[in-house]
Structure formats: C-alpha cells, structure tokens
Amino acid sequence: MNALASRHALVTGANRGIGAAVARALSAAGASVTLMVRDAAKTRDAAASLAGRHLIVEADVTDRAASQEACTRAAAHFGPIDILVNNAGTAENAPFLKLDPAAFERMMAVHVLGAVYTMQAVLPSMIERGAGRVVNIASIVGLVGAPNVSAYAAAKHALVGLTRSVAIEMAPRGIAVDAVCPGYTDTDLVSDAVERAAGRTGRNPQEIVKALLDGAAQSRMITTDEVAKTVLELCCAPVGSASGRTILVDTAEQPFHFPGTTT
To answer: In this structure, how many other beta carbons lie within 10 angstroms of the beta carbon of residue 248?
Structure first.
C-alpha cells in the first residue's frame, strides 16, 4: 500500500507502544517516517521494523528549542513534514489527595506543551503549502476521567481542547487537526501503572485491569495496532475532510467520533 507515498510523517514517542505501531503503519503505507524520541539507542528495534525510509531524531518534547531543532533536522532530511503525530507521553497515578501538585506540571508539560511545541514548529510550513495533518494521541480518560490519574486526565482533557481549537484555526488553511482517544491499551504505560497500583493497594493486578476495563465499558484491552489503524485512516483521508474530530478507539466494531469542524 502506497497511499502515503511521497509524504513525510513525524511521530513523537515512537520508540515503543502506540508510537511504534503508528510509525510502522505509516511506513507500510509508503511514508518516510521520522521517529522523534528521547533516546535513540532505545529506538533501534522500532526503527528496524519499519518498511521504508526513516530517521531517528532525539529531543525531549518538553524542551521547546529541542523540539524545534529536531523538526528542522527532520525537514532538512526528508523535506517538509506533511503528517505530525503527537504521541509522546507518560503517566503518574496516585489518589488525588496524595498526588504531588508538581505532577500536574509534569503531565501538562509532556502532553500539552509537547504538542504545542511540535505543532508550532511544523504548522507554518503546512500553511505555506496549504495542506497537512496533525493527529494528537489523547486518551479515553481525556473524555470521561478516571480515579487515581487526575493529573494525566487533566492533561489529556487539555489536549483534546487544544486540538479542537487549533483545528478551527487551521481548517480554512487546508490542515486537519484531530485527536485519537484510545481506550485502555496493551502498552507498557498501562501495565506499569497497574503494577504501581497493585503495589500501593495490595490488590491483584488482574483485578485492577478488570476494574479499569469495566469502568470504560471495554471487553478487553485495545491493541496498539488498532490505534495505529485509526491514525492511518485519518492520515489517508481525502483533503477537505472533517477536522477537529475526537475519535474514541474502544472495543466497539467501529470507532466513535465526536464531529469536528469542516474545511
């Protein structure tokens, strides 16, 4: 499949989990893929799994200058960035009253400012060309919330709001900006959070997973490939399609999306 041939896609946090799966899907569709990560050495396996041309650039997404420089290097190597996928993230879980307030600053820095910095780096070029796509990876808890992840949920809610607002500004310029909100997904991020919760509460990890899935009305964990498929469908959509959508990837047969603005 070469639906994205001649396109340049940049994916943040592409060394593992959803980011690595998205990079594979975009590469298989013909795109040249830049993997923007904090540690290139930990990204070699993910890069080796790609079907086509790829580049690894190191940057901490919370560092504006580093993000700008990494995007500039990527554009110099493969040409202007046509597709930006903001996936980099982490999570901190604890009951709200026991959560260090600094956790809110850390979550906002990674999930919100990280997306702000990369979007501000690539959107001017997209505007010049009158085309481009941005996909921000949010979360189901960015729509409905969840216990013990208030800082993460607050940041993901903010990312959804940011996505919708930027989409309204960019739609008349031919640029689509959407958010994908996966349900609980089989990733290290989720498994690590479950292990921390089990250690803190003494509960069985399987019980914690079941409670998470029941709370989200999921019959099972989402796979990273399912999330990547949704991202790929967005990136392959015709120019002029809707923008500003919030797409929930859960265990239903078809992902549900909240309508966005249109170009």
So the answer is: 22
